[in-house]
Amino acid sequence: MLKGVKVIEHATYYAAPGAGGILSDWGAEVIKIEPPGGDPVRTNFPTKGTGKEHLTDNPAFDGDNRGKKSIVVDTRTEEGREVVRKLADGADVFLTNVRPGGIERSGLGYDILSKRNPKLVYCALTGYGLEGPDANAPGFDVASFWSRSGLARLTAPKGSELFPIRTAAGDHTTSIAAVAAINAALIQALKTGKGQLVDVSLLRTGLYTLHTDLAIQLFYGRNASTRPRAEAYNPLTNFFRTKDDAWICIVARAGKADLPRMARAFELPGIDTDPRFQDGKSRRDSAVEITAMFDAAISSFVNRAKAASNMAVISTALSRRDLPSWKRGSVSMPGSSNARA
User: For residue 328, what pLDDT is reported?
Assistant: First the structure.
């Protein structure tokens, strides 16, 4: 899709290189600029104690930098910076996560590069955006995307301690946002011959990720906290453990349309008329009872069906009745060919 598009990537760590990796997947020629000695992320993946000490590659680095070309440039020198400018002269996209102050001091800011190449799409990916008091603050996804946005607080169940996000999860969410913005700017450049500055931040992506909660907060001035599984606001949309110690996620759509289907699937006659199930408040008030009811039904499901695999029988029963569900996935087994890029 992006064959013929040239991208110069002046970035390290995960969010911006992740965006470059997606652009490469889509056919763009991505040239990664690395300092003497290579991108430091190449060597920051510790293998001590893993039994894989003989491996020198960093799979996290390789994952974000697949399909790219690489060039070593010492941007601490004016000669090196001029090399980068000349590369940008012939590029369609310049992608960087260098903080605004640093990139301006190096003479590689948008104003300079766009004067030399008016059609250039210049994407600056930072922690907090290009304006405001925190524009030059260091940004990492666990701080900017996860903590500052409020995701960490909203995700942890009420009363529990906060915890860090998985490695680069916020970075890669921001990678997707950056790619969308870059492609929109490329379309405009194709139509008008003029590029533009694309300002993407970890913080704003985090805020959009919890956009529904943000909208509720802005409207009502408050937001519900996350509850433990047994006290879920909607106990019909939840995780349940099967008899063979697997977990299945079931999603009940809004309203009561799924209640008759769930009654048949789990042999729970009457739940479609049970007062505890009739509206959101009733379900929320009866969450502990409803969760216990479904726990019991699911844990005994296989005994009634006399099947070897609990999960297979439950999944089949739910699928037959068009009830959204899926067994708990993992990175080692995310679930079928649908997970392929």
Answer: 54
Cα–Cα distance for residue pair 49/55, rounded to 1 Å: 12
Question: What kind and span of H or E run contains 181?
Answer: helix 169-192
For the chain, what is the domain count? Answer: 2
Establish if 279 belongs to a structural domain.
yes
- Please, what is the angle between helix 211-220 and helix 202-209, to 10°? 80
Phi, psi of 122 (to 5 degrees): -110, 110
State pLDDT tens for residues 109-128: 999 999 999 999 999 999 99
Compute the distance between CA of residue 275 and CA of residue 34 in angstroms, rounded to an integer. 64
Which range is most confident: 161-170, 255-264, 319-328? 161-170
Q: How far apart are CA 209 and CA 56, in angstroms?
A: 35
- CATH number for the domain spanning 162: value is 3.40.50.10540
**Each residue of 98-112: pLDDT tens digit?**
999 999 999 999 999
CB 3 within 8 A of CB 27: yes
CA distance 185 to 154: 33
pTM of the model: 0.86
Same domain for 252 and 106, yes or no, is: no
Nearest to 26 by CA among 45, 4, 55, 48: 4
- Other C-beta atoms closer than 10 Å to the C-beta of 69 total 10
Identify whether 223 is part of a domain: no
Instruction: Please report whether residue 219 resides in a domain.
Output: no
Query: Do both 171 and 304 map to the same domain?
Result: no
- Please say if 171 is a catalytic residue: yes
CA triplet 124, 130, 134: central angle to 5 degrees?
125
The secondary structure element, H or E, covering residue 249 is strand 247-250
pLDDT over 70 at 206, yes or no: yes
* Full domain range(s) for residue 71: 6-211
Q: Which of 39, 171, 199, 258 is catalytic?
A: 171
Beta strands in 105-229 (DSSP E): 121-126, 197-201
Residue 163 and residue 262 share a domain? no
Alpha-carbon span 254 to 130, nearest angstrom: 40
**What residue has token string 């766009």?**
114
217 is a domain residue:
no
